[in-house]
Design a protein that fits this description.
This protein is α+β, with helices and mostly antiparallel strands. 22% of the residues lie in helices and 46% in strands.
């Protein structure tokens, strides 16, 4: 049986030093895909992008700067003292900067840890199924 954790978190799309646009991020986790988190970014009721993140990247990003390549994550404190997580996404054409409240992301990540404890992902991964999908061209 597949266990899941799904939650929509209110995020900010950072447009400049003092300018941000609200965006929802629907974070999804599945026990049969224990290493990854899917985030669907929704603006004005439509999904504008979907990204896959390593769950470990998000967990580590709660404590310090993590990531290289397409995704970087780190904690920061706003001028008013509010703690947030900064998520920076890179494509060939652009950089997208987002932030989410630390407490909300941490609470959701705790739900994923209750499903698959960090460090035990290999016990939940059905490698035969994933290899069969890969060889069938369905990945």
């Amino acid at each position: 049986m597949v266990s899941t954790a799904k939650r929509t978190l209110e995020m900010q799309l950072l447009l400049g030093p003092e300018e941000a646009l609200p965006v929802s991020g629907t974070f999804s986790y599945r026990s049969d895909r224990p290493y990854e988190v899917e985030v669907a970014f929704v603006s004005r009721g439509a999904t504008v992008a979907t990204w896959l993140f390593g769950r470990e990247l998000l967990l580590d990003g709660l404590r310090g700067e993590e990531g290289e390549g397409d995704v970087r994550v780190w904690p920061f404190r706003e001028a008013d003292g509010q703690r947030r997580i900064h998520i920076e996404l890179f494509t060939d054409d652009a950089v997208c900067e987002l932030s989410v409240r630390t407490g909300e992301l941490a609470a959701w990540l705790e739900q994923t840890a209750a499903i698959v404890p960090p460090g035990h992902e290999d016990r939940y991964l059905d490698m035969d199924t994933h290899l069969a999908r890969l060889f069938a061209g369905k990945c």
